[in-house]
Amino acid sequence: MGDPTAAWTSMGQAEVARFGGRVPRPLDGGRELPLAWARSGPGERTPVLAIPGGPGLASVLPYRGLRRAAVRRGLDLIMVEHRGVGLSRHDSTGADLTVDDVTSTAAADDLAAVLDAAGVPRAIVYGTSYGSYLAQVFAIRHPDRIAAMVLDSPGLDAGDIAEVRAHLRALFWDGHHPATARCAALVRELAAAGEDPLDLSGVVQHVYEFAGTAPLERLLEARLRGRGRRSWARIAGLGRAEVESPTGQPMVFEPDLVRPIGQSELGFDAPPDGHVLDPQRLFARAPAAEPRTPPYDVAAELDHFGWPVAVVSGDRDLRTPRPVAERVTELLPDAVLVPIAAHGHSALDTHRLAALNVAHVMEAGAHRALPKLAGRLAALPKRGPSALLGPLMRAGIALDTLGS
């Protein structure tokens, strides 16, 4: 068998050669980064600059299907391979970039350089998860390049952590919401029985976001009776693999060089507070990174964003939950909240038709109509590799807990 990384690299290079290009970006010490980007195809409409999450997600290979779907909708989608990741990982000599080369401000300026190279004066900027943070940094540094903006599953800064914890615990520890009260009671029983808190938190997050309340309740009940071991182990391992891997998956997810952005600017390095349900337990297992000072107080800058903004938020998002999305919406001068029912984190990854439709409405200049369209957006069929995880999870839990 051949080297899969070499094959993926070749595929990515072919994608860039056919649908994008390289932009030379200066680095310290006279070095140069040949920054990669890809495009669904120029047309008559305002392009959409789509920024994935992570930090560490590649753009060129993982989102080929999204760009093909954009073509079918007549959307002109531009995506930039984040510096330090995938096809933008190496300088012109073939050496890896350094951690110091990879900052949010440099990555934001890369976006502007690609728009320059593509001859695009202004774009609709669509950022999801970490990409929403980078979109905001880009807006602070290059406000003249933005026609409109979509912040999908947005985050602001390290201050989000308190809201994330409070939301998670209200649902699955305190049981304040009728739909999750039974799950919360089961979580408390499992915690009292000595269940690994890292695994317990990971299972709650992944099953609820991707599959919903009923499968989660079934798995928690089975776990109390010593059943469902296979599903429990597999689901608990999802988050661990993403955080604990030192280099990730080449050409898809490469977190090592971008890790300081997440840890210092998004608060991933905040210590756990000792409670059973705490997402920081997982991030505490990631390799350490040199601390940095965030370049901006992003929340304080939002009132200067003078363009239409759609804030997309899934009602089952536990990573950047609804209270964070509501706070972002309130801070923006011309923003609407687009609540997506039965949906978790990042429509760009798990509900791509909804994401493309939101971009389409923004391109048409009709962002005020989006809240009324939220039900129709949620009802669209879910597409994309990540969208398969929910059905697979529900089926696996059902099979693994038969007789429980």
UniProtKB/TrEMBL annotation:
AB hydrolase-1 domain sequence ranges: 47-169
InterPro entries per record: AB_hydrolase, AB_hydrolase_1, AB_hydrolase_fold
Keyword Nucleotide-binding: no
Pfam families in the cross-refs: Abhydrolase_1
Sorted UniProt keywords: Aminopeptidase, Hydrolase, Protease
EC id: 3.4.11.5
Molecular-function GO terms, alphabetical: aminopeptidase activity
SUPFAM superfamilies cross-referenced by the UniProt entry: alpha/beta-Hydrolases
Claim: Protease is one of the keywords in the record: yes
Name the UniProt record assigns to this protein: Proline iminopeptidase
